[in-house]
Amino acid sequence: MSNVIIRIAETDDELDIVQDMTTYAFMPSPVGKRDVSRRPYTKESKIYILYEDDKPVSTLDSIPMTQNIRGKIFKMQGIAGVATYPEGRRKGYVKQLMKLALIDANAEGTVLSNLYPFRQSFYGKFGYITFPQDKQAIINPENLRDIGSVETNGVVERVIGKEAIDRFYSFLKTIQTQIHGMGLFTELITKRLEKLEFWTVFTVVDGVDTGMMTFTTKGFEDELMVSRLFYKDANAKYLLLQHLYSHIDQFKTIKLRILPNERPETWAYDMKLKVQNREWVPSAMGRIIELQALEGMNVGEGEINVEINDSDCEWNNGKWKLFSDNSKLKIEKADKADFSLNINGLSAIIFGGYEIDDINFRNWGSVKDIHKIAVIQLFPPMIPSLYELF
């Protein structure tokens, strides 16, 4: 029988081991020289290595983040870099790492966990549910002519991205409060962007940043690719779109990342755009780590009594009363339950993006018809967007 131990990577040699495993899993390999340029930005992460008979075979990276859920910011765990060498696969090693990472996160007061899966059904077994995917709008700049005549207030400032990281991060913290589901790295981890080349555009009204866009270009008569487009209000949105329109004679195509609930075809007449999934990025997934810690987030009205089953975060198990107190969530232990949910079903209701009728068909719960309205009233439908990539 194999001897299995799990350690936290701390030394350079251990980080070399992790990089070799993740390179084997996700990149061309073998690689003669390791890239260590981003290691200073991983100091806040907890990187696990699982050893089988003293040989490293599996790894997982738990990244400290925050996330907006229904208007309240919670501590979040980003799971990344999950990799196992072929000789260690199908032995339950990732399951051990996932379980330990969730337990450790809970001990540190982390409320939510998110990831980008190699296969959704694999992580569904650990309680994760799929988010609606951010989209990509493909626009001909010629079709932004209607936007060019919109009357706006304020100015646009364009800078090299790495020269304005502090300003960039400050705006992200502000806009996170407006976007349900949005995850955000720590300031240290965000500073890794100093290694990248990109443009950042800010919209400024009365000295205050009201919008932000980041983009790169492929050159004359080619593409302009927008990776972030955030705005506090319609004025900021149209200032950013007008900046894109100013490239009408320079680029043939604009590729614009949009949130799943955005409808760019309504922004102006004659947009004639194409909206598609970003095929190179899988849909994000998320789960709740600790139900009780969700107290205080924004909800609707009413209450539900529900029994929760969570095999990986057992502290969530039991009967709970979830109710609204001045439109804020309150949670108490309950003596009875009107219906049951596993952690997938609970996560689907809290994060949103699902029809309540789907819960039973996905085998995530047994919500009776008479209780469906109460669930929707307490947790009105919302569309999450994790946004950060990791």
Give a description of the structure.
By secondary structure, this protein is of the alpha+beta class. The protein has three domains: about 110 residues, Aminopeptidase (3-Layer(aba) Sandwich); about 140 residues, Aminopeptidase (3-Layer(aba) Sandwich); about 90 residues, SCP2 sterol-binding domain (Nonspecific Lipid-transfer Protein, Chain A, 2-Layer Sandwich). About 25% of the residues lie in helices and about 30% in strands. Strands 1, 2, 3, 4, 5, 6, 9 and 15 form an eight-stranded mixed sheet that branches. A seven-stranded mixed sheet has the order 8-10-11-12-13-7-14, with helices on both faces. The protein is globular and about 65 Å long. It starts with a strand and ends in a 12-residue tail after the last helix.
Compact overview of the structure:
The protein is an alpha+beta fold.
Uncertain segments are none
Helix content: 10-25%
How many strand units?
19
Secondary structure tally, helices: 10
CATH level-4 homologous superfamily of the largest domain: Gcn5-related N-acetyltransferase (GNAT)
CATH class bucket of the largest domain: Alpha Beta
Category by helix and strand content:
alpha+beta
Mean pLDDT: 96
Number of domains: 3
